[in-house]
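Incident review: delayed structure delivery

Summary: a single-chain prediction request sat in the queue longer than the usual turnaround. Root cause was a stuck worker, restarted by the on-call engineer. No data loss occurred. The affected request and its eventual output are reproduced below so the record is complete for anyone auditing the incident later.

Affected input:
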Amino acid sequence: MTHTPRKHASRLSLALFAAFGTAALAVPVVGATVGGIDGAVFTLTNNIGGNEVVVFDRFADGSLGAQRRYSTRGTGTGGGLGNQGALALSDSGRWLLAVNPGSNSVSVFLSVGNYLYRTDTEASGGNTPVSVTIEDDVVYVLNAGSDNVQGFRLSIYGTLAPIAGSRRSLSGTGTGAAQVEFNRDGDLLAVTEKATNRVLTFAVDGDGLLGQARIQDSPSPTPFGFAFGRRDQLLVSEAVGGAAGASTLSSYRLNGDANVEVVSAAVPSGQSAACWVVATRDGRFAYVSNTASGNLSTYGVGNGAATLATAIAATTGAGSGPTDMALDRNSRFLYVLNNTTIGAFRVGADGALTWVEDQPLLGVPAFATGLVAR
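Output delivered after worker restart:
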């Protein structure tokens, strides 16, 4: 199918000038290093008393600076969500979206440098939003408590408006939905369902509307997090109910019109509770965090297939409970959300990981969720 681009860069610049003055136009170009700061890493507190985005400056050597916090004007749940993608960053790096699972809403922030300005908080279109994704000016939110996805249009002023007719139900009720995300071309949307052991895919048209769900049974139980590779690949972790040493990862090929085909079925890592997945920008490697094992695994990815490269590529420590992960925009550094720290690792040309530091999460609870980097 043909995907219609939805870019609005020139209107966005005018809107930023109108909304924030000349300071808004002084945003560093993505990729520029200013005073040693090369980017940022973001996570979400998920506090029941008030949800906040936590921002860390990211330096050129991969280390992180002191944290800053920004209220979402929503609330979290104060507990684990069983999700991936609680935060989403636009390709430009200017817009950050955050779910508020306790207040059934989603918030939008404008990123000016590494500082955030909240521009909107809107009802998510269902209960317990746990994951959000953005492609150009189209946003979709996964409401795990309502077993649906809801689409929104992001305006040039950073406000959200529901897209009429965009809400779609998942495969049933009590699906245990974990993640929603666009593929790299933006013409497909995927959702994982942990409780039903299914992966759903939807075709996306040029107006941001979804076709009917295509349902794929998972080769292994508890499909959880996923990432899209560079060559029409979908890479899905399978936690197998948290069974010791039983975790796997499957790869799928996207065949057009939202159809997917299993290429590598349930490739084992020998680790426990594999839940979160990220893929490098060049599509060569995928990393999986093994929450119960306290480590990370590396898979090689090529021509649709996935093979285990290193079962224990890095350790995050006993009791660290690694969950969400994020790669910086050039896939030079990998960041891992642990119970009390964000771990930073350098990514080698061969995919190998080298520890950089563990940045303390001061005052951030262990049930924090979501991690994105730029």
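Verification: Confidence is low (pLDDT under 50) at residues 1-35.
Action items: add queue-age alerting; document worker restart procedure.
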